[in-house]
Write a structure and sequence with these properties.
single chain; alpha+beta; Single alpha-helices involved in coiled-coils or other helix-helix interfaces; Heat Shock Protein 90; 3 domains; five-stranded mixed sheet; disordered C terminus; transmembrane helix; phosphoprotein; Sensor_HK_TwoCompSys
């Protein structure tokens, strides 16, 4: 019974304020209508008014109380549509019988029926409309004219039916809009799920390709390494050629894997798809810095590229490129010093600028964290910090490993 008498949906403060405004507006309209009806403005012929049984006098307090009983309960119309509708209907019918000569507006019952048609289901709206129509058809009206009484009954019934149809139409429209929005959201979700599924399929495909590339490349590297191991004492030249083949094969494999991993990386605005290059392209970094207006002091005279494995060479170039980007964007420097060398059993990179120094959060993309990851994977060390005097310094040292030492 609770669901029939009370709506269970939660009402916000704005809903209560709106319904209070509706109730007060209906009360004000009823008072204005009563004043106009009882005055000589609407019906100036005194004899005609007496024949109809309508007095020409100011309404008494009871009339305003009756209007309040038929309108002010509307403040709870959406919380309890049926209770409010029944109350205002009984108040309207009862006061019409008691207050002889006063014609009250049927606005309260109209709004109550509209609310039922809007808030409750169709069956309840039909039942409420039938009850209202039957009640209004047999109500005694404060007039001596049967014709006028019939006209007022027809008018009130018409208003009630229109209110029921209006409430039902608004409910249907709102349900249609809500369903349309629901379908649009569902369609968007379906498109997103389909796109995610296709992305996942593409990533699986790329992962398989990476597996194939890795397996093929490592097989070739393993064969060449075994050949180099056998020939290093007997035929150093052939062993050197085998090591060169290992370097080229591993570098090609790294380039292909790097480009595919760029596609797999999620959360980046643009995936890296260009092939990875090594320190042989350091001239591009120098040109980039010079184009940005910096004086560049570049020295790689102590760097023996033949001793440096491809994966280390690629890592050094990537770190140099990241550092150069950060210098241009954040350092406000005028000069940069870049040193690339092979010192003992390690490859070393030093990049120093004379700018204002930086904080870690100022670096773009993966920043210092990305450099640390590159170096740690290769068992190297990195130092990235503000210089004691002015500027910022990045220094990297990566051990060459077995291949670099044998080549030396």
């Amino acid at each position: 019974m609770e669901n029939f008498l009370f709506n269970t949906k939660k009402m916000e403060a704005a809903d209560w304020l709106f319904d209070a405004a509706v109730a007060i507006g209906a009360f004000a309209f009823g008072c204005a209508q009563l004043l106009l009806t009882m005055s000589s403005v609407v019906m100036p012929d005194e004899l005609f008014r007496q024949l109809l049984g309508i007095p020409n006098a100011m309404p008494q307090t009871g009339a305003y109380v009756a209007i309040g009983l038929t309108t002010l309960p509307l403040v709870a119309r959406r919380k309890s549509p049926w209770l409010v509708f029944i109350f205002v209907m009984i108040a309207f019918l009862g006061t019409q019988e008691i207050l002889v000569g006063y014609t009250l507006a049927v606005l309260g019952p109209i709004i109550g029926l509209f609310t039922i048609a809007h808030e409750r289901d169709r069956t309840e709206a039909v039942v409420a409309t039938v009850l209202a129509v039957i009640s209004l058809l047999f109500i005694a009206l404060p007039t001596n004219s049967e014709s006028l009484s019939d006209l007022m009954r027809l008018q009130n019934v018409t208003y009630m039916v229109a209110a029921a149809l209006g409430g039902f139409a608004l409910r249907t429209h709102q349900e249609y809009v809500a369903e349309t929005e629901r379908r649009a959201i569902a369609a968007e979700k379906s498109r997103e799920e389909e796109a995610a599924r296709r992305v996942e399929e593409e990533r699986v495909r790329i992962a398989r390709e990476i597996h194939d590339i890795t397996a093929h490349s490592l097989s070739a590297v393993s064969i060449q390494a075994a050949a180099a191991d056998r020939l290093i004492d007997k035929d150093p030249i052939a062993a050197k050629e085998a090591i060169g083949t290992i370097r080229a094969t591993s570098k090609d494999a790294l380039e292909e894997i790097r480009s595919m991993i760029g596609v797999l990386r999620s959360g980046d605005a643009q995936a890296e798809t260009a092939p990875t290059v090594g320190t042989e392209r350091m001239g591009d970094i120098v040109s980039y810095l010079e184009d940005a207006g910096l004086n560049v002091d570049y020295d790689d005279s102590g760097f023996d590229r033949e001793r440096v494995p491809a994966y280390i060479d690629v890592a050094l170039f990537g770190i140099a490129r990241e550092a150069a980007t950060n210098i241009v964007k954040h350092a406000h420097a005028s000069g940069v010093s870049i040193r690339l060398a092979v010192d003992g059993e390690a490859a070393r990179l030093s990049i120093e600028d004379d700018g204002r120094g930086r904080n870690d959060e100022e670096t773009d993309g993966h920043g210092i964290e990305g450099m640390n990851e590159r170096v740690s994977l290769l068992d190297g060390t990195i130092s990235a910090h503000n210089r004691a005097g002015k500027g910022f310094a990045v220094r990297v040292s990566i051990p060459l490993g077995e291949a670099g030492r044998n080549h030396g």
